[in-house]
Amino acid sequence: MMLSGFFRLGVWQNFIRAWRSGYSGNLEGEGFTLGGVYVIGAGRQGVLLEHREKEFGDKVSLPSVLEAAEKIKPQAS
């Protein structure tokens, strides 16, 4: 996203939401890398959930993570 991420309305909305909720984490680092969340099942189940940040501050839905985690079947040994 580089510098263009600074000019996106959603990025500022996410920043304000985090600031109001009291976020005081580490703000050091490169600052240009977006993150993501994957839930991967055992064996051949593969990827059960994939969430990639589209802009800084995108949050994955906790209920969707829990739903995907409940779908993981233990691998037979």
UniProtKB/TrEMBL annotation:
One of its GO terms (cellular component) is cytoplasm. Its main location: cytoplasm. The keyword Phosphoprotein does not apply. Keywords: Antioxidant, Cytoplasm, Redox-active center. The keyword Cytoplasm applies. It comes from the Eukaryota. It is found in: Cytoplasm. GO terms for molecular function: antioxidant activity. Belongs to the peroxiredoxin-like PRXL2 family. PRXL2A subfamily. This is Peroxiredoxin-like 2A. The lineage of its organism: Eukaryota, Metazoa, Chordata, Craniata, Vertebrata. The gene is Fam213a_1.
